[in-house]
Amino acid sequence: MAVEVLSTADGREKTALSRRHAATWFAARTAGEEIPIGRADPPNAPARPAKPELRDPRDVPRRRPGSPEGRNALLHAIAHIELNAVDLHWDIIPRFAHVPMPIGFYDDWVKAADEESKHFNLVCDALEANGSHYGALPAHAGMWRAAADTVDDFMGRLAVVPMVLEARGLDVTPGMIEIFRKAGDEGALAALEVIYAEEVGHVAYGSKWFHFLCGRHDIDPKEAFHDLVRRYFHGPLKPPFNEEKRAEAGLAPDFYWPLVEQNAR
Ligand SMILES: [Fe+2]
Ligand SMILES: [Fe+2]
User: Fold this and answer.
1) Which residues lie within the region annotated Disordered (predicted)?
2) pLDDT digit string (tens) for 52-65?
């Protein structure tokens, strides 16, 4: 199921398939069926549509939120992030299927992938209501880098994707909500409120399974987190942090604060 989603290029098709597979998964879980996890080779990078054109971040137009065009550019960037997140959450399942994990691990990432699929659709709906669409603008080419860098490091993947990148989403989303509230864009506002409420869970899944693996191997979670983020995350962790939501997701300040300076070189 994961490989099928990863191999589907069109965004709306990918998210529809993702939601169908998630529904199948949870129907089987509710019915108490035994679900074999299986093995499959995920593609090196997920299939992507012909549009948007993927560019180096320096060549992606700036997003000035003071104009309708600037707000659409911001929504377009969010749609791109959400689509990438769908693939990231499905990818972790076959990528590390050789490591035996409790069934709840799969429940969490299937649920997260389902939610990302919903987020992509909500943001695309908001873009389309504003006369634009996903693919209308160029998008960031480097989105799969964190996945590629951690392709054979399970704990590195958990540290960098949910616990750094998605946690960053918790920091910046309130500011984006304010932009669309002020602009009176109800569709975008509703989409961002759903995203903000649900992303806490994804960060929490990352923290939960990171700590689980640390416990399994009897290693210190904080030190392991610092080592892995320094190895795989290119760039500083930027305050201000959303300490309240990070705490809700199981991310303690001594995990992220020490990485601000070391990574700022
Ligand atoms: Fe999302
Ligand atoms: Fe997420």
Assistant:
1) 33-69
2) 999 998 888 777 88
